[in-house]
Specification:
single chain; 122 residues; alpha+beta; 19% strand
Length: 122
C-alpha cells in the first residue's frame, strides 16, 4: 500500500545529528536501518536508545511503508537485550508526543533493563 512519506530530517534534530556523526555516540549496535546507544540520562541500570537512521518524527508519523523499519527497530532492541544479558526481562518503551513524554522529535525506542520493572510506569 502506498502511503504518505514520513517526516524529513532536520539539521536541528539531535538524533539526526547523531546518525550523521556530527554528535558522537557510543554506538553499541548498528545496521543499515538503525543504531543503538546508551541513554545519557538512564532510568535503569541498562537504558539504551534505538533510533532509525531515517528521520520519522514520532510513532504518530509512521505509515504502512515504515513497517519493515519498525520491525527492524524491534529486532535491534532484541539483539541489544541479548548482548546485554537481559534474559530475566526488559521493557521497550516508545514515547509519542508531549503528553506521551517524547522529548526528542525523532522516533526512538527505550530499552530498559537490569532491574525489576513496576506497573504502572508513570
Amino acid at each position: 500500500m502506498k502511503t504518505t512519506p514520513s517526516s524529513s530530517p532536520s539539521s536541528d534534530c539531535l538524533f539526526c545529528r547523531i546518525v550523521s556523526g556530527d554528535i558522537p555516540a557510543n554506538r553499541i549496535y548498528e545496521d543499515e536501518l538503525c543504531i543503538g546507544f546508551p541513554d545519557i540520562n538512564p532510568q535503569a541500570p541498562i537504558h539504551m536508545l534505538i533510533i532509525p537512521k531515517r528521520h520519522i518524527a514520532s510513532a504518530a508519523n509512521a505509515v504502512a511503508d515504515d513497517n519493515g523499519l519498525l520491525g527492524s527497530l524491534m529486532a535491534a532492541a532484541s539483539a541489544i537485550a541479548r548482548n546485554e544479558k537481559l534474559s530475566k526481562g526488559y521493557r521497550i518503551v516508545v514515547n509519542t508526543g508531549d503528553d506521551g513524554g517524547q522529548t526528542v522529535n525523532h522516533l526512538h525506542l527505550h530499552l530498559l533493563g537490569g532491574r525489576r520493572m513496576t506497573w504502572p510506569p508513570g
